[in-house]
Amino acid sequence: MKRFTSVFALGLAATLTLGGCNAAKDVADGAQGAVEGAADVAGDVAGGAVDAAGDVAGAAGDAAGGAVDAVTDAAGDAAGAAGGGLVALKDGVTGMTSSITSTVDSVKSGDFAAAKESFSGVETAWGNLKGVIPGDTAGIEAKISEVSTSLASDAPDKDSVLSSLGGLKDLVGGLVGN
Hints:
The chain has about 180 residues and is mainly α. The protein contains four helices and no strands. It has a domain at about 85-175. About 90% of the residues lie in helices and about 0% in strands. Helix 1 (about 1-110) packs antiparallel against helix 4, helix 2 runs antiparallel to helix 3 and helix 3 runs antiparallel to helix 4 (about 160-175).
């Protein structure tokens, strides 16, 4: 019976030891599963962060592209406006120069009434141009006033009017390189 008790005790001890080992294995397996689950969650979080960063980078790229497009459009519009302004300036100066030439021809022929009428075209053209002329325009305005005053007199001095018209024509022609 002693033997039986010893064998029984050994069997019981073995069973308990196996049970303890199984419990330890279960705990280790559970821990391993928890670590794997945590790694999966961490991977998902990291993937989401990478996706979010990619979305932000894409949005920033889109915004930058939009800004570049807006600046490019504005520059194109400004260039077009400047080009249109230069054409209008050249056309205005050409019209003004033509009116000065007509006034000179009338003064040379002694027809001061026709000269006054031609010169009104100069004054009208200047009224349209003076706001778009870059730089100092005081010289042009002084010459226009000089010619206008001379033509308004009862007996205009032909040489004086022609001299003033010549100076005015030079100043106006210099605006666009005529």
